[in-house]
Amino acid sequence: MSETQHITLPVTGMTCANCVATVERNLKKLDGVQAAVVNLSSERASVEFDPVKLGLADLIARVEYIGYGVATGEADLVIKRLADDSDARRLENALRKLEGVLEAQVTYAAEKARVKYVPTIVSQAEIRRVVAAAGFEALELGGDAEDAEAAARQHEINTQRRLLTIGLLFTVPLFLLSMGKDAGLLPAFVYNPSAAAHLGGMREAQPWFNWVLLALALPVQFYVGWQYYIGAAKALRNRAANMDVLIALGSSAAFFYSLPITFGWLSGHVYFETAAVIITLIKLGKFLEARAKGRTSEAIKKLMGLRAKTARVVRDGAELEIPVDDVRVGDLVLVRPGEKIPVDGVVVEGRSAVDESMLTGESLPVEKQPGDPVIGATLNKLGLLKFEATKVGRETALAQIVRLVEEAQASKAPIQKLADQVSGVFVPAVIALAALTFVGWYFFGPPLAVNADINAFTRALVNMVAVLVIACPCAMGLATPTAVMVGTGRGAELGILFRSSEALERAGKVGVVVLDKTGTITKGQPAVTDIVTDGQITPDELLRAAASVERGSEHPLGEAIWAEATARGLALIEPQGFQAEAGQGVEAEVDGRRVAVGNLRMMAARGYPLNSLETAVERLQAEAKTAMLVSVDGAVRGVIAVADTVKDGSREAIAELRRMGLRVVMLTGDNRRTAEAIAGQVGVDDVLAEVLPGDKAAHVKALQDFGFRISDFGLPAANQDHPQSAFRNPQSIVAMVGDGVNDAPALAQADVGLAIGTGTDVAMAAAPVTLISGDLRGVVRAISLSRKTLRTIKQNLFWAFFYNIILIPTAALGYLNPMLAAGAMAFSSVFVVSNSLRLRRQRIG
């Protein structure tokens, strides 16, 4: 079985949920396509397919065949080192083999290359790298790689603006003339004196006046509104019906009904202004919607804008400033104070503080020294740093964050399924209802007054047009994806990465939060917390002696003692005659004195008196700290307590989670006494202690299924219900927060897995949500953001359904003028997008 390939296509020309369904359905029809998800808000199609059966060109051809487009970019490169025409052909072939490149033309005489590509698949930086790999040099580029897709969107906005302007230029005078004529406000020469009160007192205009109205209506109907006819034709060709069909039917009914009256074949009132106002108002709504939709992706643009444009590298002993795309793995990069770090790497020289808030959401700068990692796009605050580049291009943390956010935005939330199902039958149902409205009003409507200014046919037609133009499938199609786009983008700004819109939705329904202790609640690194002496020696002297013995120790407790002494600036002495006793401690000669560092068993085995330190040892052990006794020349002189300390912010985060109504459970492999001591410090609701790494997932499952601790009842046998099944709570949504390799199964088992960003890649790969920062307050922000996004989606869906459920029958009953209906329809989708944009300004966490 061949491996599947995943690509994202920027699709243009989609206007409503029915367009989305049409593109999805047609892509899925292709042999080899395994999955296709289309997003109206981001205007992208995410496709998973078998590359053996079809290629990129086949996918694009299908999208274009059904009447839509794929945004492409063009790169113009000046190529150096071309020796002859065969070199040009060789480079051309190399470029055409690059995934995402649609066309490549290399001209030897002009030393130029023009490449047409899909910007969501390949970047101009990658194109340049292919040129370099082929042995040539690209001196300049035309345009900006990331701007290709944005240019297509901007072109659409500019087109809508131009059409709206033309529509207003013709519609406003058309509307004023028509209304003025009906109200008798126009000069006398406009009116027909022989038919002054022909229509219920309404003065009839001269025959030429209708021709003036027709002249004003024609450009609106067939120039401004032409794209609706094109869209309707495409939809009908694909055996579908979309918003364009409704607009084309509604405006055409009013326009073409007015033609025979204008030609003098029939008598009556013309409705050119109705047709023009419908098209112009909807065009206004589409223009505002396009602008608002552009703002939903501002978070992605802001992230991409964080990247440094150039980098200062050291090559062959010389310092060079080069484009950031030209930085290679292994390059030594220099960053001065106040400059952005261009790519990911590891510090080799220098010390500084780096502001990582743009990626992690944490405001405090992070100290960096040799051996520490640095992240591209972060800001160097103080000193000069020299680092080795380890990840460049699409491998950098920033590029991966952008990719994750884009993938999440392209996915569909479960809550969207109802809207998709309704959208599939919505337009045909509206057309059927419009037809019934016409029939009902024409044949069964109440009798008209004798002097009425309309007849039964006109009345039925006006009400049918109102039904056609009031219906809005756009609002339903935009309700979920716009909120998801803003929510995931806002999350990225806060250092929260959702892998899918489903994860974003489920996080808001969480009822139980399970926190792994080590590395999540605590720092995961033992540190010295207390130093108690017998009064015969100072704390620093005791620490210096113990640290000298532990110097170079690989034991975590020994490293903690050595690290504390180093942090205090104590001068350590090289130990002599070092001895280690497994499970007890270490001993060596320091400065002519015999120093031992170990546990109670070690001191008891040697018969060393504790010198009244028993109370201190018991107190420290009760606080879940490891007490390390230090003896000097056969007498215990003090105790050094080592413990895994609680992270800054853990207490506040857990308190906030509980205030949000969540049950907080701590999961750890530590003994119960130690676990409960930590639990007491941070205030969790429950503790699951002495849990083996392999059993973490089972404990999470028990909380999902039964809502209680396995330690209370024991693990159920395989394929067998738990004896306490009366406690079963299938509605319990459990979130698991962890950072280590042994957390990965539990993260995968949980309804929502949240990986702390300071943890391992394995944990992050298993988690639907990643917190870039190691701060537990990120969990609060993630759940709060999810809840607010979910609330926004529900508001949008309520509006979209409520609007259609209330106003379509209102129009069918004859209470809505078609022009008012068009205005309401135009602004319904604008409301949905604007409501989603409110998420950008809301306080999260």
Describe the 3D structure:
- The protein has 845 residues and is an alpha+beta fold.
- 48% of the residues lie in helices and 20% in strands.
- The protein is built from 29 helices and 30 strands.
- The strands form six sheets. The chain has a seven-stranded mixed beta sheet, sandwiched between helices.
- Strand 29, helix 27 and strand 30 form a beta-alpha-beta unit.
- Helix 10 packs parallel to helix 15 and helix 28 packs antiparallel against helix 29.
- About 4% of the residues have low confidence.
Which key features would you list for this structure?
845 residues; alpha+beta; seven-stranded mixed beta sheet; six-stranded antiparallel beta sheet; 29 helices; elongated
Write a concise synopsis of the structure shown.
The protein is α+β, with helices and mostly antiparallel strands. Helix content is 48%, strand content 20%.
Neighbour order of strands in the largest sheet? 18-30-29-28-19-26-27
Global morphology: elongated
Profile the largest sheet: 7 strands, mixed
Rounded to the nearest angstrom, the distance between the terminal CA atoms is 46 Å
User: Structural class per helix/strand content?
Assistant: alpha+beta
Mean pLDDT: 83
Uncertain parts: 141-146, 196-201, 711-728
Helical segment count: 29
Rg, please?
A: 36 Å
| Range of strand content | 15-25%
**Tally of DSSP β-strands:** 30
**Quaternary structure annotation:** single chain
Percent helix, as a range, is 40-55%
